């Protein structure tokens, strides 16, 4: 786990009738509704997951507002030309020395301070942010929530309770890795999103390559399978594309000045 949080484990549903749930004010979501949520419904779910994470110990970085604003500026620059520009993204800095990043439903993206320090320049950080945006645009988290609800036996014929889905979302934020296919898809979405936002696309490759070549992969890669294969795939994307039209974000000194308070 990236941050010391005790996760609540959902328990299998007891035999509760659908009318008991409805009249009890419990919101029920059917399996087909999970992956077909409207932007507003997904945002509501993500907001509840975010609140639960913070109740269980996740802290937001408060020491320097300029760092928060810097990350948000990068995120919003990438969000506008992303595959889901209608999602109201929220980008948050998490004070933790681990090299990690994650995303939850509804546009919530979390970048830990350890990862920001590990990046050499803005393009590398933008590559990570674009990757997490790719997970949200691909609705990978929602698919995992549905699969976990089924696997844990809490998806009844009526559907799954929203509070149980929130608990699953908290688990997914830290402890359950994405599938190989989801990671490849998020890498590709992030790569092309960087290009549309005017960032040098070598940034995402360089950051993955640096982490993959280390002694032991950090959490960002250890919970995301096949780091060497991912670097190879990104190299193939770079080789098959035109030479990056921009070198935006590749100035190491400018980046270090922006995150100086973290060092």
Please bin the fraction of helical residues. 40-55%
Parts with pLDDT < 50 across at least 5 consecutive residues: 1-25
Instruction: Provide the spatial order of strands within the biggest beta sheet.
Output: 2-4-3
Q: What is the helix/strand order?
A: HEHHHEEEHHHEHHHHHH
Percent of residues in β-strands:
5-15%
Write down the Rg.
19 Å
Helical stretch tally: 13
Largest sheet: 3 strands, mixed
pLDDT averaged over residues:
85
Global morphology = globular
Number of strands: 5
Task: State the separation between the terminal residues, measured CA to CA.
Answer: 23 Å
Query: Which structural class should the secondary elements be placed in?
Result: mainly alpha
Describe the structure in brief:
The chain has 263 residues and is mainly alpha-helical. Helices cover 54% and strands 7% of the residues. It has 13 helices and five strands.
Structural commentary:
This protein has 263 residues and is mainly alpha-helical. The chain is 54% helix and 7% strand. It has helices spanning 18-23, 31-34, 39-55, 65-79, 113-118, 122-137, 140-151, 162-174, 180-196, 202-212, 219-222, 227-240, 252-258; strands spanning 28-29, 90-94, 101-104, 108-112, 160-161. The strands form two sheets. It has a three-stranded mixed β-sheet with strand order 2-4-3, with helices on both faces. Helix 4 (65-79) crosses helix 6 (122-137). The longest helix is centred in the first third of the chain and has 17 residues, at 39-55. The radius of gyration is 19 Å and the shape is globular. The two termini are 23 Å apart.
